[in-house]
Design goal:
The chain is an alpha+beta fold. Helices cover 57% and strands 13% of the residues. The chain has a three-stranded antiparallel sheet with strand order 1-2-3. A hairpin with a 4-residue loop joins strand 2 and strand 3. The longest helix is centred in the middle third of the chain and has 30 residues. The termini are far apart. The relative contact order is 0.15.
């Protein structure tokens, strides 16, 4: 094999290894993510992990004044807000690791966007 060909193979192999390491770093960081959101009155607080699963639910005693339907709606809305914040965090991780304009970055961020869309200001909590 010529020196040029060997150099190209080494360069390509190093590039693939770097991309794999960056993708693994992104996956590790995403797996450790956590997002917490509160409702507007700060009576409901929901925490989700990097996969969007609820890992914590806190209700202030004043939440008892809500009727059950409103309380359920506040819990779900707050959960969705916490999940939507994951999308923003994942985009930032992708930018730092693999780049958001790479196929891997686009795929991961797009997956989170479709599962946990970022809400408008009407859904914003504190």
């Amino acid at each position: 094999m010529s020196d040029d060909a060997e150099g190209w193979v080494r360069s390509w192999s190093a590039s693939v290894s770097e991309q794999a390491a960056a993708a693994q770093s992104m996956a590790d960081q995403v797996s450790r993510l956590e997002s917490t959101a509160s409702d507007r009155e700060r009576l409901v607080r929901v925490t989700v992990d990097g996969s969007g699963c609820v890992t914590g639910l806190e209700l202030e005693p004043e939440a008892r004044r809500y009727d059950m339907d409103r309380l359920a709606a506040e819990i779900l809305r707050t959960m969705r807000l916490a999940q939507a914040r994951l999308t923003e965090q994942v985009a930032a991780i992708a930018e730092r690791t693999v780049g958001v304009d790479t196929p891997t970055g686009r795929a991961v961020v797009s997956g989170f966007e479709s599962r946990f869309p970022v809400r408008g200001e009407d859904d914003d909590g504190r």
